[in-house]
Sequence to fold (436 residues):
Amino acid sequence: MLVRHVRSRKAAVRMAAFLPPESAFTVDFFFMKNSAFLCDVVVVECADEYSIAKRMRKLKYFFRIIMVAAAALCCSCGNGESGARDSAAVLENGSSEESEYGGTGRQEIGANRYVDTAMGTVIQQTVYASEETAADFYVKSMALLKELEEERLSWRLETSEVWRINGTAGNEEGCGISEETAGVLRDCVELYERSDGAFDVTLGALTRLWNIDKWAAGGLDDGEADGFRLPSSADVEHALKLCGSDKIRLAAAGLGEGEPRVFLPEGMGLDLGAVGKGLAQSGLQGLLEAEEGVAGAVISLGGSILTFGDKPDGSPWKVGIVNPFDTSSNVGTLSLKGQWCVSTSGDYERYVEKDGVRYHHILDPHTGYPAVSDVRGVTILAKNGTLSDGLSTACFLLGPERGMELAEEYEVEVLFVMSDGQIVMSEGMETYFTEF
Ligand code: ADP
Ligand code: MG
Fold:
């Protein structure tokens, strides 16, 4: 066994990158169990010291897992601070009654905590239920997220529906799709129209060109090492021509026609990244409703938060909103009761810095480049995950004036953190938000 103490997240990341993949879970687990992280000390355990040297070249994949795990650690530390680059975090006071990890060990309702990774991010759950019910929910929820990514959303996996759709771009007969996906696409096209084209899930050609999903969350400064290559303006222009939700056609399932169909023009690709976590939130909501015996739950998907039911002591869920200027702190908290979805989009979540320029992951469909905006972060509070996720991206692009109007149209609450530090929010948001 190898045990190392390091004094910063960066050092932990560097060191963890040298561990063999099977240590990932050890690291993850240990992070959660050990409150040492509160003072930024991470102890890494590894089963086989010898294999570390052997695997030194295969760092990249593991490096990413640890980046995410490190973010989750901050997020879960429970001392009022949230995860670096996670947009929002669940803030909870630890209780000696509660178990440290994965269960109370009793049959009565307690706080059961789980941390895992799915959809390229960290999933944290606190489920108020018996240990058995919580464990059951945890297993089902991870299966749901895996299925959502692998069978529906990922444009990189051949097993997914989006992959299949993208593969038929240009085909006259289009692509048969599930009712759920047809519904999502309809909602996305509607948001495209209502956001004046700011929100666009047909940016596949562009996001691929920018290679966004390969950038590390939290923005490595050595972009090259993380696969970043600044695209030429000619390439951006070309990719831009292959985008536009107004160019897709959706055909509802009709009598004798079987499933609904979608038709993409040649070269177009869907990228549902902007609603992926929201769809996951909606799926988890359904699962929680169906699971008997869950009194309350709060689930964080890399900073998108879902709350459900109540805490046994009746106190509200506390969700911290990250300060974009110092991602280790919050600008304030939301106090929520019952079922809510909180989504944030910010230029600090996923970015690369190269030659002094910050390239972030929210693209302006009118230019093909990362959006230039006075906004640093937008948080949406809604009852529906897809809506909150989609609107956070849209409002980031639209800015406070138009964004506020759009939020009102959709009857959701919105909060903007502006680049001068000012906080602008909808009237309804004031009911829930407490500024620090
Ligand atoms: P995240 O899900 O990473 O927290 P967002 O919800 O804001 O952040 O979604 C950003 C993702 O959506 C990008 O990584 C990209 O895949 C995709 N995307 C980028 N720009 C747009 C846009 N203008 N409209 C729709 N999707 C976008
Ligand atoms: Mg979004």
